[in-house]
Amino acid sequence: MSKTVFVTGGAGYVGSHCAKAFSQAGWHVVTYDNLSRGDRDLVKWGPLIEGDILDSLKLTAALNDIRPDAVAHFAAFAYVAESFREPERYYQNNVVGTMRLLDAMRETRVPQLVFSSSCATYGVNAELITEDTPQLPINPYGETKLACEKMIQAYGRAHGLRSVILRYFNAAGCDPQGETGERHDPEPHVIPLAIRGAMDGDFEFNIFGNDYETPDGTCVRDYIHVSDLGHAHEKALNYLQQGGESVELNLGTGHGHSVLELADAVSKIAGREIPKTFGPRRDGDPPQLVASVEKAHQVLGWQPRYSDLDHIISTAWAWFQAERNRSP
Ligand SMILES: NC(=O)c1ccc[n+]([C@@H]2O[C@H](COP(=O)([O-])OP(=O)(O)OC[C@H]3O[C@@H](n4cnc5c(N)ncnc54)[C@H](O)[C@@H]3O)[C@@H](O)[C@H]2O)c1
Question: What is the pLDDT of residue 187?
Fold first, then answer.
């Protein structure tokens, strides 16, 4: 009989791609999402329970009813700039929400968790970031993710919860079959914005800061294809099923690309120059974030397969073209 995974935030960008990966690997997938930032039509790989992780009663009832083997927890707010403006909403949704989930899992005896953490927990680092690099976040969003990590580890020590904490770097690209993709409103992510610059003649792609100590002065990030994240999450579920101990793992590629490199790659695929402007640096943006991914390779036997920059951009380009054709 197939195992069941309860996916919080499965109507969102990363969660829907992971739901597809779980389903393709034979898991029965149940999504729990309040649709505050996700879309019903992206829940394609199993039923949707519309609910909030802050709603303990509904969450506990859903877990009691479904009796999942594991939870994959994606539900959160994830915009750095917004987290500076409204830290209270971030602490409430991300930290209190995760606590409600852990308590509901404890009450209903669900023993395994895969958690979406972030490179935003690390802060400023010039070097390749390993899992042992000190976690010193420089924005409230990263602080909330670090608080969740600590809470999950403490519940593990006290109550026996086993977890895989996955710290992803920049999730990017879209499902190569076009079945799900990225849909944020407003869109804060750099690749969709560069693509918009290439598609809309009147939209200028703004680059925040070109005076960083990086090769071309713009921020360097490690872009990991969202289908590679899906594959890693599925391996993390299997690892826990086989009795693996709690662990924290980076998910990236080990290579960084600057914002200007990325804009050039989008121009190449679009066949037209992107109108660019340069603005001031943004609060909370470290100059460089690049992952060491050795540990994920060793523990899960996982390696990125789809994260070549041109592939990332061409899958995103195809998704945004199709979205444009879908909209009236
Ligand atoms: N996108 C990235 O580059 C990236 C990088 C590192 C970590 N992450 C983490 O991955 C996870 C998913 O990110 P994403 O980019 O897919 O975001 P997203 O906004 O596309 O998806 C989040 C989903 O969670 C749901 N949600 C939010 N609050 C909820 C609540 N209280 N109850 C129920 N559902 C709720 C939203 O409706 C949405 O469907 C987040 O935890 C984020 O912190 C994302």
Answer: 85
Q: Which residues, 6 or more positions from 181, have their beta carbon under 8 angstroms from its beta carbon?
A: 13, 42, 174, 175, 316, 319, 320, 322, 323
Helices 97-107 and 56-66: crossing angle, nearest 10°? 40
CATH classification of 190-221+254-291+302-326 is 2.60.120.10, yes or no? no
For residue 101, is it left (φ>0), alpha (ψ between -120 and 50) or beta? Answer: alpha
**What CA dihedral angle connects 275, 83, 30 and 45, to 10 degrees?**
0
Residue 182 CA, closest ligand 1 atom number: 20
Pairing of strands 220-221, 257-258: antiparallel
**Mean of pLDDT over the chain:** 96
Amino acid identity of 12? Answer: G
CATH class of the domain defined by 4-172+224-251: alpha beta
Find how far residue 180's CA is from the centre of its chain.
14
Distance 27 CA to ligand 1 centre (A): 21
Our measurement of the distance from residue 269's CA atom to the centroid of its chain's CA atoms, rounded to an integer in Å, reads 24
Alpha-carbon torsion 42, 307, 172, 146, what sign?
positive
User: Which residues lie across from 48 on neighbouring strands?
Assistant: 31
Active site residue 13: no
Please report the atom of ligand 1 found closest to the CA of residue 184. 20
pLDDT at residue 328, rounded to an integer: 67
Mean pLDDT for 220-231 is 97
Rg of the chain over Cα atoms, rounded to whole angstroms, equals 19
Residues 280, 81: contact at Cβ < 8 Å?
no
Q: Helices H, strands E: what count in the chain? A: 11, 14
- What does the domain layout of the chain look like in residue ranges? 4-172+224-251, 190-221+254-291+302-326
